[in-house]
Inverse folding.
């Protein structure tokens, strides 16, 4: 499923210069200098959470140093999990690269950002009608999750609610790659399960993230990670939990996950 998405993303790289902010138009002294994959993923995630919720397309300027390479669509998707990305820029002979990343954000990010906004009412109005519907569904789930006392209980409640309401599909409909398809339509690919858990987890005050990699048979796959208050992180693969006969990967360790999937493990903080 995700491999087809990645192919579509790579095709999206073939855009005209008018579709992307050019390197010459930006003051690169303002761009962060990034030296590791973990630092890169952390920076982009932080910026995505801070963007205005009514802007679906976001642009990031980054200077990569120490030979770090994140200059293909597949590199970028594997680190930060986005639906579409266009990349332009210049790689220097000294090992630095000035790159512009232009992404289209998942609705789960926008809805979570709106819910967590200081002015939630205005942020809700900035969402489109379907995102507002998604917001309202999400609030019902989060309100119930927040009645539970521990982080693990909240995470498991959210995991199980998604599994109760969503079925996996192999349809290439873009909706099913998002929380919209998952919670409004009831169908999702792995990206949709992942976006839904990410959105609900953040809304419930949990420290969660998304990650992309491949299964051991080479199929693209996406799942979540969660960091508890003790600083320890684990993986949560909701896609495999909706069917009781499937592999149940809730708060799984790296050792367990590596039996089934591979990814850039270093971007998950303190993974157990």
């Amino acid at each position: 499923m995700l491999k087809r998405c990645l192919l579509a993303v790579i095709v999206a790289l073939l855009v005209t210069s008018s579709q992307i902010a050019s390197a010459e138009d930006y003051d690169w002294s303002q761009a962060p200098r990034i030296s590791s994959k973990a630092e890169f993923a952390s920076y982009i995630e932080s910026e995505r959470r801070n963007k205005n919720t009514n802007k679906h397309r976001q642009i990031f300027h980054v200077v990569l140093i120490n030979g770090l390479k994140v200059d293909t669509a597949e590199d970028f998707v594997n680190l930060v999990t986005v639906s579409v990305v266009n990349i332009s820029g210049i790689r220097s002979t000294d090992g630095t690269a000035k790159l512009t990343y232009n992404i289209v954000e998942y609705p789960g990010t926008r809805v979570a950002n709106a819910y967590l906004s200081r002015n939630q009412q205005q942020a809700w109005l900035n969402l489109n009608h379907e995102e507002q519907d998604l917001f309202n569904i999400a609030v019902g789930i989060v309100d119930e999750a927040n009645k539970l006392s521990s982080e693990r209980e909240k995470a498991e409640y959210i995991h199980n609610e998604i599994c109760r309401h969503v079925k996996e599909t192999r349809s290439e409909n873009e909706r099913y790659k998002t929380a919209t398809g998952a919670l409004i339509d009831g169908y999702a690919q792995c990206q949709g399960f992942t976006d839904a858990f990410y959105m609900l987890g953040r809304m419930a005050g949990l420290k969660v993230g998304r990650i992309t990699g491949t299964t051991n048979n080479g199929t693209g796959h996406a799942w979540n990670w969660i960091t508890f208050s003790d600083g320890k992180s684990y993986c949560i693969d909701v896609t495999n939990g909706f069917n009781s006969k499937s592999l149940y990967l809730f708060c799984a360790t790296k050792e367990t996950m590596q039996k089934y999937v591979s990814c850039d493990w270093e971007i998950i903080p303190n993974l157990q």
In short: The mean pLDDT is 88. The longest strand covers residues 207-215. Residues 148 and 154 are 6 Å apart (CA to CA).
